[in-house]
Amino acid sequence: MNAFANQIFKSPLRRLPALLTLAAAACAAQAQSSVQLYGIMDAGVQVSDTGAPGQGRQYEVGTGNQAGTRLGFRGTEDLGGGLKAVFNLEMGIFNDTGALITFGEPSNIVFGRRSVVGLQSAFGDIMLGRDYTPAWWNIFQTDRFRLGMPGTIATSSQVAVTRANNGIFYTSPVLGGGFRGRLAYTLGAESSSPRDLGRLAGAQAEYRSGGLLLTAAAQTRTDLVPGSTTNTARLKERGAGLEYAVGNYTVSAGYWATDPVTATVGAVDRSRAAWLGGTVRLGVGQITAQVTRTTMDVFGRGTGRAITAGIAYVHSLSKRTSLYAGIGTVRNDANSRLPLNTGTQRVGGTVFDADPRALVVGMRHDF
Prior knowledge:
CATH superfamily: Porin
Distance between the termini: 40 Å
Shape: globular
CATH class: Mainly Beta
Structural class: mainly beta
Number of helices: 4
Largest sheet: 16 strands, antiparallel, barrel
CATH architecture: Beta Barrel
Helix content: 10-25%
């Protein structure tokens, strides 16, 4: 070390090779391994009404209206030969209070959005941990609102499982002709009894060509039979969709069916949803509208139907910052109580034949 330091501090001509060697080593180390901090901050004012008798408007500062507020860390290490080690940790945040969003997990969960480590190669990516399910990819890619703003299909599609724990997740490379596939298998409760509780298996396939995307997915999860602590049955869901973009116009359409395991009066026993949406770009802004029809077999009541509709305008101030405004509603019949999803929050959903609605105005910043 002393000899190397002495060489650096000698005459300019003699120290140049040592400085170049040191710089090259630093650049190589930087190229081999990197860690990135990233996130989204999204907040706005929301005016909502559940539509239930005796309840009026509610005013609040909301979060994650256009996109879920998040903070994440991702890293890559080049192992050579086209092989890379990767990881991703991502947490959801209510930035109006600073509290964590756990997505249905226990309150002590920090990285509820994603928590994976794995390998990338020419043969695809394989990840271990908590990740998105095949159903999530299918829904996200065909939702014109990308799971944000009033009118998103996040709730109206009735998709049941969008993230899964204790899983093995595989994504293929893009194959000839634009095909890509995803597989997911989780180990469920692992050490608990019954051990297959929560076990998920699913697959998603997509095809891209120019502005066209076609996608389909199916998955099952093992749940407890109502009233039992040992017997299990399978929740099943499946669907397909498309997106087509040409010039300043994009249209999306899709279908999703979910068959949960339930025997609770008033709960949805089976659902089918179909949606159609479109986006028009206008300079630095865009207008998006979408409508979804959801049909539900409600246990103990019969068939219920709901129409969800929303429209929004997003105005880009820069590549990272945008302003938005959106409005949406759900029209429920006598056997339906579908809530309105406004991004991170839900409005209504507790009273049959009530029509929730909401208006959101806010700002999103990516970093």
